[in-house]
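[stage:ingest] chain + small molecule (adenosine-5'-triphosphate)
[stage:ingest] validated
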Amino acid sequence: MPPIKVALEQCNVFYGSLQVLDELTLNVKEGEFVAIVGPSGCGKTTLLNLIAGILEKATINCRKREVKASKVGYATQEDLLLPWRTVWGNILLPLELLRVKPDTSYLKRLLSISGLADFIDYRPHQLSGGMRKRVVLLRALSLKPDLLLLDEPFANIDAYTKIQLQRLLMKLLSNLRTTTILVTHDIEEAVSLSNRIVILSRRPARVVKAIEVEAPWPRDPLEARRELKDYINEVYGYVFNK
Ligand SMILES: Nc1ncnc2c1ncn2[C@@H]1O[C@H](COP(=O)(O)OP(=O)(O)OP(=O)(O)O)[C@@H](O)[C@H]1O
Ligand SMILES: [Mg+2]
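[stage:predict] done
[stage:export] tokens:
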């Protein structure tokens, strides 16, 4: 049995009098890929911030709250690439902030897998939307995190580029096996990429249902969409009936 990396038990979070998480329990095992879906404004970003330990101005009351990760990679909902820095400079940022020496060959391998190797001197405004998303992913992985948090990493992207980015994520993770928590509005994405889907209620978020996806992993996201239709329908059922 793999060790537990994230253990949240009966967590309640309030912003002032506004309750955002309601007795929320979530356990994530090492190497697991968990997708979180739930209505807009229900508390998903708040949940990731709680796990990342960067939740500010909130009252937190958990029966248990343990995150056993020494390095957390977090691709936040707004992709905050620094416009004056190059691709390379943006990817190095987390390492500079934590004063970690870069593993140049690891970073070059990530850049080459992502098709960005020829663009390391470009600035964000010189990149396409899909390329920027790839830089955001690589920046979250540059620290070699033992926990990866992704908040809607492929939102507002055309269907074709989205599949390519999902394939890239699978490829990167199949090498790294990083424990991953992905927040997404896209139910097909949640099912095709994850080992488990956690469905949240409207605010204040509580867990409506957790569904294990019993299928080999890593997967090809496009094939998985076809093969895992029953799971996709099941998740739609919970999202729209409850
Ligand atoms: N810093 C804050 N101060 C006060 N209220 C906040 C703060 N951050 C979030 N909220 C409120 O908490 C609730 C949940 O917000 P959160 O960003 O976690 O939702 P979400 O599920 O990520 O939504 P979306 O899917 O639209 O990104 C919202 O009602 C929001 O207004
Ligand atoms: Mg959010």
